[in-house]
Design a protein that fits this description.
Blueprint (H helix, E strand, L loop, with lengths): L1 E8 L5 H18 L3 E7 L15 E8 L2 H9 L1 H10 L5 E2 L2 E2 L2 E4 L14
Antiparallel strand pairs: 1-3, 1-6, 2-3, 4-5
Helix pairs in contact: 1-3
């Protein structure tokens, strides 16, 4: 497995449009990338206490790929490239690409309950 966490930032005033686009890309990944084992997109829940308080426009992706090759196919493939081309303007950017923090993770312990997978 190749798990990772990625963070992006939605620009002020673009949240509604960005969330719709993120829901769309998640569905495309589900349908078109069988080696993407998990792909979830989250934003802070400000009705709950958060310590420290996250940024307003923060988006966190939790992703698990079958292997590094599957991840490379994702970021270099048409679903991701088209998403950035069509919706990249909704996010904080660097050189016309969404500014992304990326943490490649290493499995130590844990599980995913199959009945909870959407």
């Amino acid at each position: 497995m190749y798990p990772l966490i990625s963070k992006w930032t939605i620009l002020p005033g673009k949240k509604k449009e960005a969330l719709a686009a993120l829901k769309e890309v998640a569905e495309f990944v589900k349908q078109r990338e069988p080696d993407t084992l998990m792909y979830t997109v989250h934003v802070p829940d400000f009705s709950q206490p958060n310590l420290p308080t996250p940024p307003e426009g923060e988006v966190i992706f939790f992703e698990i790929y079958r292997n590094e090759e599957a991840f490379q196919k994702h970021v270099n493939g048409p679903t991701f490239k088209n998403f950035v081309k069509q919706h990249g303007h909704l996010f904080l950017s660097n050189n016309k690409q969404p500014y992304t923090s990326l943490e490649i993770m290493k499995d130590v312990a844990g599980f995913i309950r199959p009945e909870l997978v959407k």
